[in-house]
Amino acid sequence: MGDVKIAITGASGFVGTHLKGKFPNNIAILRNDSHDVILKKLKGVSVVINLAGAPIIKRWSNSYKRVLEQSRISTTKRLVKAINESPDVELFISTSAIGIYPDGKECDETCPELSDDFLGQLAKKWELEALKCKKVTSILRFGVVLGKEGGALKQMLIPFKFGLGGPIGDGNMYMSWIDIDDLIRIYEFLIEKHLNGIFNAVSPNPVTNREFTKILAKVLKRPAFIPVPIFILKILYGQAASVLTASKIVYPKRVLTAGFKFKYSQLEDSLRHILS
Predict the structure, then answer these.
(1) What is the C-alpha to C-alpha distance for residues 178 and 176, in angstroms, rounded to an integer?
(2) DSSP secondary structure letter of residue 76
(3) Which of 96, 132, 194, 210 is disulfide-compatible with 171, CB 3.0–4.6 A?
(4) Is the C-alpha dihedral spanning 189, 191, 192, 197 positive or negative?
């Protein structure tokens, strides 16, 4: 699959960097590329992967909310317009997030109820823009992506290594997570099978924040007794703290039904491989 030519938006980010390692025949599409530049870059490209989007974990002022929307929706709009005009592109894989699902409810891709908060609305708008693509289109709804070089785990490791780790609040909120290697393997799977539709990019085994904390502490051989009060997160991140305190119980029904096999379906296996 190394000979498949892929174009990536958000190529310099955590997931994009891993994708470039897996697919060496790649080209980066930049946020400020004009329509004509994008079209030129799409020559000979058969797959486009859309990862563009400003970071979510940052205080959401009204102006930053506009940045979050524009970096996802406007970029996707421009990209889809070019893809629809490209004679070469066969498959478009866009990104979304499990923030689209309501808190505290077990959901797979057939879940009839979607979240109506800011993140839920953002994900819905993002997906609607991607679905205007006339080529085969997949949307991956990311859970918490675990890897050493980026994402949530990189932020968590610092306090844990100093023995200052602990659960968030009572630790009862659920985390739906995925190992970065399995996420890249899902991309390979979608490309190989040319799959269409919405897929949850999460392990089949969500855990509570308390379980996550306990397993991470065990793997690092560090104590983890100091809970992080929710009010501290609200002081630090304002409304964006909801990303860290949400409880998402999400399952990857569609990739499993299509025949995908997870390599790291259990959290301890994933953390041991990442942190070894």
Answers:
(1) 7
(2) H
(3) 210
(4) positive
Six-digit token pair at 175? 């985390």
Find where tokens 């991470």 sit: 216
CB 206 within 8 A of CB 243: no
174-175 vs 26-29, strand pairing mode: unpaired
CATH of domain 6-275: 3.40.50.720
Residue-wise pLDDT for 157-195, tens only, equals 888 888 888 999 999 999 999 999 999 999 999 999 999
Cβ distance 126 to 80 under 8 Å? Answer: no
What amino acid is encoded at 119 in this protein? L
| Tokens encoding 55 | 């970071």
Q: Name the residue ranges covered by the structural domains of the chain.
A: 6-275
Label residue 134 left, alpha or beta by phi (over 0 means left) and psi (-120 to 50 means alpha): alpha
